[in-house]
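User: Sequence in, structure out. Go.
Assistant: Echoing your sequence, followed by the structure tokens.
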Amino acid sequence: MKTGSRLSSVCVAMFAALALASMARAASPESVVAPLSSTNVHNLFRASTNVFSGNSPEGDAAFAEIAKLGVKTIIMKTIISVDGGKPVVETARKFGLRYIHLPIGYDGVPTNRVAELVKAAQSSGGPFYVHCHHGLHRGPAAVAVMCEATAGWTTNQAVAWLKQAGTSADYAGLYRSAIEFHHPDPAVLARIVELPEVAKTSSLVDVMVAIDEEFDRLKAAQKAGWSKIPNQPDLTPAQTATMLWEHFREMARADETTKRPEDYRKKLSATEQSAEQFRAILRDDKSDAVARDTAMQAVRLWKFDPAQLDGRAVTSKLEVPIRFQLTR
């Protein structure tokens, strides 16, 4: 009897272990997050039963495909510092979809936005689609915190998802949002009554201030021999250069930019290209200080003068001669 009892205990233990292993496999993003094939939507994933993730839908075909997924809510992410990425609300409505616009930046998901995202997920009433511009960075970060809140994801699962979605390690703030996630207080969620269909986004003035701040960090890194950013242990020079590039890239997409003269847009395009080259050089461990200095100077030569931008006085910290001034 004792032998039979021991065998029974062993069998129970083995069954429990197998069950736990099965549950662990089922809960892992590798098995839960399923990439979906699509002809109209890029980087399309099903992150959980109700959460889909991808790029910004372009044209009727993309919205029609999303509607066929059973998606009834689209949660839009755009960079927080540009007045671009306005949701195509009218097109979405044609396909029975509604927009909730909750912009975030590449530096991470702020606490108040985490609460709004969780509220949106809880009140969606069914499947919803989350997107940024390309569906690679900000959108997946939003999905990570929402799934941590509503789908029981662990920190490891959220980080694994970001890697699977293609979120660059250069965006340390987005990874940090997943790693440091805390579920919003129920009282905070209860106070969120309305979520905007089209959010107010920052002006070009705010973008220029943000660009100035990135340059300040890069100047400090330059003085430190490009080895680090003093007093910024969580940031590397390459990550900061990536943020700088994103500011210029998103600025080029802004509605406000399309209304400005062709010369302005050409110079902005050149700035964006120089910033991308600068980013690539900093990411190359074999590049020397001379190459890095030269690349940063190429970006700085195209710096804007925000002194009277949009009728608001802004103090610029730049020391490099200004090559042109933003005008309407």
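User: And one key feature?
Assistant: DSSP finds 14 helices and eight strands in the chain.
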